[in-house]
Specification:
Layout: E1 4-9, E2 12-17, H1 19-24, H2 35-44, E3 50-53, E4 57-60, E5 66-70, E6 78-80, H3 96-110, E7 115-122, E8 125-130, E9 135-139, H4 144-161, E10 165-169, E11 176-179
């Protein structure tokens, strides 16, 4: 049985097979990097977290690094913005609101809440659409964890009560919940 080890060193993903190899490595040296090969490896990377909609879709990782430029987002959640700078593979989106929105989408996926789309409204606010769920408004200035903890509690409670949600605004200490009809 082969064991594979993945190690992220300065943005490079290295995959090592076998225990003996790992035990004998004391230091790393990166030799010649061939741009064509790096491009292939970046595009094949499974770490894309979101697709930013510009003239085309920019498939980005959790740090905002463009891994691929595509005509479709695939299965990734899409981030919509009013204006998007066109970047090439290997360049990086550095706006804090983009990085924070990618983090929110990544953590929603980790919690199996499946976001489909996000729209950055302002540097302080983003809206996220959940798959078969409500519109969720999040703060881009508050910590992600507590906002998503509140979201999970609200969704669990609403599911038990059998109510239909229109939206949840997590920007406040006490989240604002709106329902689909007045009788709920």
């Amino acid at each position: 049985m082969k064991r594979h080890f993945k190690l992220l060193v300065a943005g490079l993903l290295l995959v090592l097979a076998g225990l003996l190899v790992m035990a004998k490595i004391n230091s790393w040296t990166v030799g010649e990097i061939r741009p064509a090969r790096v491009g292939e490896d970046l595009m094949a990377s499974p770490f894309a977290q979101a697709a930013i909609k510009g003239e085309q879709y920019f498939l980005v990782n959790d740090q905002g690094l463009v891994l691929k430029v595509s005509d479709s987002p695939g299965d990734l959640p899409v981030i919509l913005m009013d204006s998007v700078k066109n970047l090439s593979v290997g360049e990086k989106f550095i706006q804090p609101e983009i990085i924070f929105t990618i983090e929110i989408l990544e953590k929603l996926n980790q919690r199996t809440l499946h976001p489909t789309m996000a729209k950055i409204i302002s540097p302080q606010k983003a809206e996220v659409w959940l798959n078969n769920g409500p519109l969720v408004t999040v703060s881009l200035t508050k910590e992600v964890g507590p906002q998503l903890d509140s979201l999970q509690v609200i969704l669990a409670r609403v599911r038990m009560e059998g109510k239909a949600l229109r939206g949840i605004d997590l920007r406040f200490d006490k989240p604002v919940i709106t329902y689909n009809s007045l009788e709920n």
